[in-house]
Structures are given as C-alpha cells and as structure tokens.
UniProtKB/TrEMBL annotation:
Domain NAD(P)-binding as annotated: residue spans: 7-103
Record-linked Pfam families: NAD_binding_10
Matching Gene3D superfamilies: NAD(P)-binding Rossmann-like Domain
Protein name: NAD(P)-binding domain-containing protein
Entry-linked InterPro entries: NAD(P)-bd_dom, NAD(P)-bd_dom_sf
Length: 233
C-alpha cells in the first residue's frame, strides 16, 4: 500500500515513518513535511520525502507524488503547548484549514478506493462545540469543529473513510525530561491509567495497523490506541 504521513518531521509523524518503512504491507511511504526527511538505512528505499512550503498549498508536482495513495495519517497541528506562541488565527489555520486543504489536495490527486484518512486529535477534545472547556476553550472548540469537519468527508468525497485518533499524553524518551515523564507514567500505569497516556511506539503501531487493515471505529480513544498498539507490536 501507498501511505502518506503528513507532519512527517513531528514527534508522532517521525515514529510512524520509522515503523511504516519496516512494515511489509507498506510498499511506499510519502513523508509530507516542511523539511526533507532523510533516513539512511536499507528501509529508506520505500521512502519518498515530499517537501511543501505550507500545508495549505498543493501544487501539481506535489499532487503527482500524492496520487494513488491508499491512506493518509494526518499529524499536522499546532499542539496546545506550542499554541501560546502563535495568533489564534494561525493556530486555527494550521489545525483546521490545512487539514481540509491537505485532504482536498490528496483527493484531487486521485487516491485509491477506499482511501483511508486518519486524523490526529486528542483525548479530552469536547465532542460538542457548545461545550467550551474552561482551559484552552477556543483551542478545544476549534479542534472539536475540525473533528466534525473530518467526520463529514465520507459523505462529501466518495470512496473515503475517516478515523479520529484521541491519544492522551504521548510518552517518549527523546529527551531526559520526557524519559523521566515516561518512566513515571509507566509506574503509575501499573495501578491506573486515569491520566490517559500512550507510548509513542504503541501509538504509531496502532494508527499504522488501522490505516493498513481498516478502521475499527470512527473515533479511537486512548485506551483503544494502547490496546491496538500493544497487540500489534
Ligand atoms: N504529543 C502529545 O503528547 C500529543 C497528545 C495528544 C494529541 N497529540 C496530537 O497528535 C498530533 C501530532 O502531535 P506531535 O506531538 O507529533 O506534534 P509536533 O511534534 O508538534 O508535530 C506536529 C506537526 O505539525 C507541524 N506543525 C506544527 N506547527 C506548525 C505550524 N505553525 N505550521 C505548519 N506546520 C506546523 C509540524 O511541522 P514541523 O515539523 O515542520 O514543525 C509537525 O509536522 C497533533 O494533532 C497533536 O495535537 C499529541
């Protein structure tokens, strides 16, 4: 299968690329990003790095690379942690307008049928835009509206299937601080997963599984992602 990973240079996107290159079901990986993605090992023969200036713009030469895709995993977003450094209009543009532009760009390029689009959101995103949370209210409502926009794609664009991933905190060991947090979560998880979290490798394995084999549900909770990720790895 031909898989597009949008946001290929991000924390989650880079792990999805790493696992996709080792997955025998995946024959071609399109790493869509603002910077080149370079992997220098034998798995890289399946990789095509496609650099775009902006996730809102899909020139013909980019569409030519996206054509015929079986699935796309869309990880592009300004995360809540980083959103403080941007105007809200720009955060919304990246999170919402670019998701629509990216989906349309791939659709116009001519995907395979069915074409699976897996969109990353987060656990705790309200499911009703009128339920504005006290913390990060505008951001959370915007992510809720983006999810609702994505859920309508199959009725608007024939031959498409969508899924929304709701990870909690994504634990990883890319820095000492993150390793410390991941270690703390792994101990706490022995007793409770009341604070939703999923390791980066489990999360990547779960979404890859779903993009390859089909979506179990329209919305995958953190617990679903942990379960699918652990059984896949
Ligand atoms: N990390 C977590 O703990 C966590 C938890 C729950 C949900 N999620 C969700 O999972 C998804 C992926 O998260 P992540 O942790 O991988 O985030 P990340 O490392 O910040 O990567 C996000 C991607 O979005 C792109 N991006 C960020 N800001 C941008 C901007 N201003 N303009 C254009 N592109 C921009 C990045 O591109 P560049 O690499 O070029 O900057 C990157 O490819 C997001 O939807 C996030 O909300 C993450």
């Amino acid at each position: 299968m031909k898989l597009i990973v949008a946001g290929a240079t991000g924390l989650v996107g880079s792990e999805i690329i790493r696992q996709a290159l080792r997955n025998s079901y995946v024959t071609e990986v399109i790493a869509l990003a603002r910077k080149p993605v370079v992997i220098d090992d034998s798995s890289a023969s399946k990789l095509k790095s496609v650099v775009i200036r902006d996730y809102a713009e899909y020139p013909d030469e980019v569409k030519a690379e996206l054509a015929g895709a079986d699935a796309c995993i869309w990880t592009v977003a300004v995360t809540p942690f980083r959103s403080a450094g941007f105007d809200f209009a720009e955060v919304k543009r990246v999170c919402q307008d670019c998701t629509l532009a990216g989906f349309k760009g791939i659709y116009e390029a001519g995907p395979a049928r069915p074409f699976r689009f897996l969109y990353f959101s987060a656990e705790g995103t309200p499911q009703d835009p009128s339920q504005r949370p006290f913390i990060l209210g505008d951001y959370q409502v915007m992510r809720c509206e983006t999810e609702n926009m994505v859920r309508k794609f199959p009725t608007q664009y024939g031959g498409t299937e969508v899924c929304i991933a709701h990870p909690g905190v994504v634990t990883n060991s890319t820095t000492w601080l993150r390793l410390l947090l991941a270690s703390t979560f792994s101990v706490v998880n022995l007793f409770t997963r009341a604070l939703p979290n999923v390791s980066r490798d489990e999360l990547a394995a779960a979404v890859l599984n779903q993009a390859i084999h089909g979506f179990d549900k329209e919305t995958l909770s953190n617990n679903d992602l942990v379960r699918i990720g652990q059984s896949t790895l």
